[in-house]
Amino acid sequence: MTLFDKIWDKHVVKQIEGGPSVFYIDRHFIHEVTSPQAFDGLRKRGIPLARPAQTIATADHNVPTWDQHLPIKEALSRLQVEKLTENCKAFGVELYGLGHPYQGIVHVIGPELGITQPGMTIVCGDSHTSTHGAFGAIAFGIGTSEVEMVFATQCLMQNKPKQMRISVEGELQKGVSSKDIILYIIAQISASGATGYFVEYAGSAIRNLSMEARMTICNMSIEMGARGGLIAPDETTFEYLKGRKFAPAGADWDRKLAEWRQLYSDADAVFDHEIHIRAEDIQPMVTYGTNPGMGIPVTGTIPGEELLEEKERPSFRKALDYMGLHSGNAIKGQKIDYVFIGSCTNSRIEDLRQVAAFVQGRRKADGVEVWIVPGSKQVEAQAREEGLHDIFEQAGFQLRQPGCSACLGMNEDKIPAGKYCISTSNRNFEGRQGQGARTLLASPLSAAAAAVTGVVTDVRELLV
């Protein structure tokens, strides 16, 4: 059996002949964007929330990252956050709202609080729920109607997906991180290359990653069309979880640990598709287009359309036109106006430490605005406790308050039209960071290098 098989089979309540499974959900995370209609659905049907103790809420998408103690200025954002507060109170759901010490991006707070655990099934009305798969969990995003289904029954109707294993073996080059690994994979197989699959990441390069780095990889599984991604739990996983707020303790810890140690793919497990990658082949990556599959090594040139099928060429030309870039040009040296280091992909304390270590003693380039947005109040507090805020301030970077921020421009943090932003987030769609904004995805280290030089830079040239 694969790791996925083991977790899946344990959570099938009923298999409908010739149809989907009734699939049990252990943890349901919610936020202010996809929950209001689902709560209203319960009200209209006159039914309660089935298991409120298994639902956890936080405000993240619409929240400002300045002056969080003040009323939210944008009317729609304010309404959505207020509705979340009202609904959680009415239905008995634990809420980590603005001002709460556990508030933050939903996919950051779950792991850091120990709510996310191996062997679980986890859903949220957010596509990047796949992040939690880093702990050896089946985690995936759901739509609003499915949010209501989980509210009502603690179950979903699910067809079992196909399974893919992507093995990354070897040692990474200096300056290459987990963000580069996943951008490289997506560039290799395309933004639709894993459609219909649940992906297990394996290999020595994956096992050598920290939990925060593993979360980055699983986070972006959805960007290659996968239903989700997961990594088998190991000693790194267990060490990360031990002692966290909602992790098991005492005899419960010992019992759970024994269960978690059985969560791996058997040696004779069969996958529907296998991909093998050499870690040494991966360079710092950066995207040039309007989907995450349009990525190249920082030393590369923007490709031409001649290798594409005829039907793909119009969208390729449209993407380059939107980005103001041209085939044959080097991506290195491209001018940058904004740097955004944050999002559920790269806003954890490890990301902030890495950036602070790189920029210490350096200063941002003139004309570049740099936003550092921690993923949670706990990350923010830890950054300040460790003095990272002083390093950022001296470098001319803004350390803001937690939230999704400029990842998706659903709040006050938007990139102006026509401006270039190198971003550690997960998507570079047209208008994703603001109407007309031009997004280049990269790792925190590559983003920090661009911040101090003002252009897309090979960070390896600046590392000592």
Beta content: 15-25%
Strand order of the largest sheet: 5-4-3-6-7
Give the proportion of residues in helices: 25-40%
Low-confidence stretches: none
Structural class: alpha/beta
What would the CATH topology of the largest domain be? Aconitase, domain 3
- Overall tally of domains: 2
Concise structural overview:
Helices cover 31% and strands 17% of the residues. The chain has 464 residues and is an alpha/beta fold.
Can you walk through the features of this model?
The protein folds into two domains: 3-273, Aconitase, domain 3 (2-Layer Sandwich); 287-461, Aconitase, domain 3, CATH 3.30.499.10. The chain starts with a helix and ends in an 11-residue tail after the last helix. The protein is globular and about 55 Å long. The chain has helices at 3-11, 36-45, 75-91, 106-112, 144-153, 178-189, 204-207, 211-219, 235-241, 250-260, 313-323, 349-359, 377-385, 388-395, 444-453; strands at 12-15, 21-24, 27-30, 55-58, 94-96, 121-124, 138-141, 155-158, 162-169, 197-202, 228-230, 273-278, 285-287, 295-297, 338-341, 369-372, 398-399, 420-423, 438-441. Strand 9, helix 6 (178-189) and strand 10 form a beta-alpha-beta unit. The protein has 464 residues and is α/β, with parallel strands linked by helices. The chain has a five-stranded parallel beta sheet with strand order 5-4-3-6-7, with helices on one face. The protein has a five-stranded parallel beta sheet with strand order 17-16-15-18-19, covered by helices on one side. A four-stranded parallel beta sheet has the order 11-10-9-12.
